[in-house]
Design goal:
By secondary structure, the protein is α+β, with helices and mostly antiparallel strands. It has helices spanning 35-44, 66-83, 100-115, 134-148, 178-186, and strands spanning 19-23, 29-34, 48-53, 60-64, 89-94, 119-125, 152-154, 159-161, 164-171. The strands form 2 sheets. Strands 5, 6, 7, 8 and 9 form a 5-stranded mixed beta sheet that branches. A 4-stranded mixed beta sheet has the order 2-1-4-3. Strand 1 (19-23) and strand 2 form a beta hairpin. The longest helix is centred in the middle third of the chain and has 18 residues, at 66-83. It starts with 18 loop residues before the first strand and ends with a helix.
Length: 187
Amino acid sequence: MPRDDENAPRVNEEISAPQVLLIDENGSKVGVINTQNAINMAAEHSLDLVEVAPMANPPVCRIMDYGKYRYQLQKKEKDARKKQKVQALKEIKMRPKIDEHDFDFKTKAIKNFLESGHRVKVSVFFRGREMSFLERGEEVLNRVISECEDVGKCESKPQMEGRYMRLLLTPMSSSGTKPSDQDQEGE
């Protein structure tokens, strides 16, 4: 009979080894015994024989309720996924001649993204003759860096990519990098 999940432990008749090192339902070591005898012992207690260490010699098997064991594993995986923080990359586009209100609005959005734990790519797009005034775009990006320095840090200085000048901001770590910067200034 083909197995559904190759990573799942072998249970009862799926165990192919002639002898196994048996651990009973209380967690105490019984010793090396015949696999069929171990399956019979598990059946007497209305439990399953589960192979927990298949690479050992002989394989280690445990008497347990396999359904309950799988349920607990699924519950642990679900909790781990819930606690996992997904860090997305957000992008904000600006122009070299950005209006003050637009700049404030976009920096507020950048701060919100950084506080939520996302990385933010800030891009300044240059059209036509604006390419001869790259320092204006750099000024805009430097203003963004100074406005957002309390919630995020700059990965690298602004770089040109085609008609875009780009910058990557990452959120401050939960432990915070600010105190170490202040310690160095005090010395």
